[in-house]
Amino acid sequence: MNFTRWSARLPGTQRRAAARTEHAVSQDRRGEGSVPAARAEQLTDDPVPVPAVDGLPARDVLDRVPALVALVHGTDHRIAYVNDAYVAAFGSRPLGEPAREALPELAELGLLPLLDQVLRSGKPRTLKSRKAVDGRSYTFTCTPAAEHGDGAGVLVFATDVTDHAEAAERLRASERRQRETAVTLQRSLLPQELEQPDDLRIAATYQPGGTEAAVGGDWYDVITLGGGRTALVIGDVMGRGVRAAAVMGQLRTAVRAYARLDLPPHEVLQLLDGLAAEIDANQIATCVYAVHDPNEGRLVYASAGHLPILVRDENGTVLRTDEPTGPPLGTGGWIHASGSVPLGPGCTAVLYTDGLVERRDADLDEGIAALEHALAGAIGTPQVMCDRLVRSAGVMADHDDDVAVLVLQHPARTGTDGELFRNAALELLGGVEAAARARAFASGVLTSWRFPTDLHDLGVLAASELVANSLQHGTPPMRLRLRRTDRRLIVEVTDGDDHLPRRRRAEPGDESGRGIAIVATIASSWGSRRTPGGGKAVWCEFALPCP
User: Fold this and answer.
1) What CA–CA distance (Å, rounded) separates 26 from 482?
2) Among 157, 351, 392, 399, which is 20 to 30 Å from 131 by CA?
C-alpha cells in the first residue's frame, strides 16, 4: 500500500505543510535590511532544508498519531491497516479480513453503512460523538483514500472526545435538574385539588412543554365565592423557567385574595395589573377572570390579553367570546371592562392557554377554530373532555409549550336530581310590613322543600334579619331570594344601596346593629357584594345534612 498519498489526506496534514512552507519562505526573505538571529552560526546564505510532506514516512507518522486510524479497502471493507492507538483501544485486528467480522466495534456504532456511502459518493462523512465499546467517546471521520474502482479504500480517523462528551452530558443533566425543579415548582403552585361548586362540574389539566422547552407560567384556579357564585381564572406568564413559575405563583395567590373581595371581574384585573408591574416590571402575563352566577345563568368575565373563552350551548352551538379585552397584566394605564355570555343548564365552557392552539406553521385563528370544532363534538365528563381536547390539538409529550385547559359544565338537572336544586324569590314592596311577608314567604318555601325543623327555623330567622337590615339601611328595589342545592341553603337579599354592611359589636344599650352578628353566628358563612346595577347583595349559607 502507498501510505504517502493517504497521509496527505489526514486532518491537519495539509495545514501543517502550508505552515512549514510559509516559515521557509519567510526565512528566505530575511536577507537585506533584517536583523539576523542572535546565534552567529545561524548567519548563513544557505536555506535550512525542510522535508516535504511527500518525503515523510507515512507509516511512522500514522503509528505515532494519538488518534485512532484504520484503513479499509474494497466493497467489503477489508482491513489494510490499523495504527498503534487503534490497537491500544480495541486490540489487534487481522489484516485482510472484512470489517463486518474483524471490526465489530465499528459495526456496533453503525459505521459500516457510512463506509458504503463514502465509497459510493467519494465524499467524506463524519459521525459525531459516539460511545464505543471501550467506554470512551469518539468522533469518526471517514475519508475516501483512492479513486473509484478496484482497490478503492476508506481512511477511518477517530478523535477521542470523551472529555467533551462528558461535559455535554453534565450540562444536559444540569438542564434536566433545572427543568425538573421548575416543573415541580409549577405543579406545586397549581391547585392540588379543584374546588367543586354545587352547580358546576369542573376539571382541569396542565401539561409542561417537552424536554427541549423550559417550563412556562401557565396557571388556572377555581374559587367558590359564596352565595352559589364561582370564580374561574386562567393565565399565562410570559417567559420560561423558575422565574416565570414564581411570578405565576404570586399572581395566583393575589387572584385568590382579590376574589374574596367579591369584586367585578374587571376590577380584579385592574388590581392584578398594578401588582404585576410591582412584582417584575419586565414580566407580563395574560389572564381571564370570570364569575358564574347560577341565578343569572351567565358567565361574567374580563380579559387581559388572553384568548377568548369558548362556550357550547345546550344545542351544541359553540360561541367564541369577543370584546371586551385589554392588554396583558403589567402594562399599566388601561381601564379594563367586563362582558358576559350565557352559561345556563346544559352549557359547557372552555378556558385555555395559547399552547393548546398556537402553532408556528399556522395562524392562531386556525387553532382556535379547530378547538371550536373539537368542542362541538366532545362529550363526557369535564375530565374526559379535557383529555380529548388536548389530544385533538395534537399536544404530545414533546410539545414545545405549556398547555393549561379548564373545562366547566353546568348540568341540566331533571327528575329527582332536579328536586335538589330549587329557587324561590319575592319582591319586597311596601314598608315595615315587608318583613312579615318575607318571614311568611320563607317559612312556606322551606316547608315545601321539606327542610327539618331546626334548619327551617334558622332559615326563617336569617331571612328576617337580612330583610330587616335592608329595610333599615337600603333603598328599593328590594328582593328576597331563597335557593337550595344538594349541599346547602342560600338566603340572599338585594337592594338599591351600595353601602356594604359590616359586622360590629353592639353596645348593651343599642337598639340596632345585631342583625348581621346574628346571621354570622347561626349561618355557616355570610358575605356581601356590590351588584352591577349600583346596589348590593347580602347573603348567608347553611350546610345541609348529608343524606
Assistant:
1) 103
2) 399
Q: Hey, what's the cell of 271?
A: 388590581
Are 455 and 544 in contact, with CB atoms under 8 Å apart?
A: yes
**What whole-number distance in Å separates Cα of residue 47 and Cα of residue 21?**
12
Report the C-alpha gap between 146 and 152 in whole angstroms: 5
Q: Give me the DSSP letters along 115-169.
A: HHHHHHH-S-EEEEEEE-TTS-EEEEEEEE-S-SSTT-EEEEEEEE-HHHHHHHH
Side-chain half-sphere exposure of 30, counting CA atoms within 13 A: 16
Tell me the mean pLDDT in the region 273-287.
Answer: 87
Q: Are 206 and 401 in contact (CB under 8 A)?
A: no
Can you tell me the distance from the alpha carbon of 72 to that of 144, in angstroms, rounded to the nearest whole number?
A: 10
pLDDT band at 506 (very low <50, low <70, confident <90, very high): low
Q: Cα–Cα distance between 403 and 81 in angstroms, integer?
A: 56
b/e 357-385 (16+ beta carbons within 10 angstroms → b) = bbbeeeeeeebbebbbebbeebeeebeeb
Residue 500 identity (one-letter amino acid): L
Query: Where do the H-state alpha helices sit in 378-502?
Result: 382-392, 415-419, 433-448, 453-473
Which residues pair with residue 312 across a beta bridge?
318, 348
Other residues' Cβ atoms within 10 Å of the Cβ of residue 266 = 20
- Residue with the three cell numbers 459521525: 127
Instruction: Please state, in angstroms and rounded to a whole number, the distance separating the CA atoms of residues 376 and 394.
Output: 17
Give 230's contacts (C-beta < 8 A, 6+ positions apart). 195, 197, 199, 200, 222, 223, 224, 291, 292
More confident residue, 48 or 264: 264
Q: Which amino acid is at 130?
A: R
- Mean pLDDT on 353-381: 91
Task: Enter the pTM of the model.
Answer: 0.71
All three cell numbers of 186, joined, read: 409549577
Angle (nearest 5°) at CA 18 between 14 and 23: 150
- Please state, in angstroms and rounded to a whole number, the distance separating the CA atoms of residues 454 and 297: 31
- Omega cis (within 30) before 477: yes
